[in-house]
Design goal:
It is built from ten helices and two strands, in the order H-H-H-H-H-H-H-H-E-E-H-H. With 234 residues, it is mainly alpha-helical. Strand 1 and strand 2 form a beta hairpin.
Length: 234
């Protein structure tokens, strides 16, 4: 089973360090994804699934370049039965209905996710595309293409990886970074830090006294001598 906690931590660190390397390309796409008309449609899906609207927006961009005639699940036409994974979905009556199905009934079941911190959201997006890159120990271009966190390597077909191919699409993390510049409402849940447990200091030794002389002192020697006399008398 993949170590998703490790992937969430890695993605959170990458997010903190990420810089756009194709900044001029991100701006127009981010503006289109965050436009009032598009946002309203994504928010309608969020209301039914609990999945943040900007997650839906960037997945829509990656799967079909925001083509409203295509399903969020895999980019197939939503008015026909899908032929790509997940296969056999649909037909549906609208993009929104197909998206709700994709997020609720198809792996990785984003609607069931409870971690919408930046690490959790990016990891769910990575699961949406598949964990092949994580299994190879490299950043996923689905998430990091167009940032300095990704250099090269891409699955060019199902199960076929080419280490020298560079993904030309814009990655989800960079898209969200760019969208945050045009829509200040985009926020991530705060990471809950573990409670700090107060550590009790060690007890302070009692001050020497006639009944509790300091170890090695004359008083201790006398007390030991007296104690031995009473033990022999007993």
């Amino acid at each position: 089973m993949p170590d998703l906690a490790s992937l969430r931590a890695r993605n959170a660190v990458r997010w903190q360090n990420a810089k756009l390397t194709r900044g001029s390309e991100f701006g127009p796409v981010a503006a289109r994804l965050a436009s009032s008309a598009a946002k309203a449609r994504y928010q309608a899906i969020e209301a039914k699934t609990g999945v943040p609207w900007f997650f839906i927006a960037v997945a829509h961009q990656r799967e079909s370049s925001q083509d409203w005639t295509r399903s969020l699940a895999q980019g197939d036409p939503w008015n026909k039965t899908s032929t790509h994974v997940p296969k056999g979905r649909g037909p549906f009556v609208s993009f929104e209905d197909a998206a709700v199905d994709a997020l609720t009934n198809c792996a990785p079941y984003a609607a069931r996710n409870t971690d919408w911190t930046v690490g959790g959201l990016l990891t769910m997006l990575e699961q949406y595309n598949g964990l092949g890159y994580f299994n190879r120990g490299i950043p996923s271009p689905y998430i990091w293409s167009g940032t300095d966190q990704y250099l090269k390597g891409k699955y060019i077909a199902d199960g076929k990886f080419d280490p020298n191919v560079v993904d030309k699409q814009l990655g989800c993390a960079g898209l969200i970074l760019a969208m945050m510049q045009v829509d200040a409402s985009i926020r991530f849940e705060a990471v809950e830090m573990p409670a700090v447990v107060a550590v009790k200091p060690p007890p302070t030794p009692s001050a020497p006294s006639p009944i509790n002389p300091a170890r090695g002192s004359i008083g201790a020697l006398i007390a030991g001598f007296v104690s031995s006399i009473f033990k022999r008398a007993a």
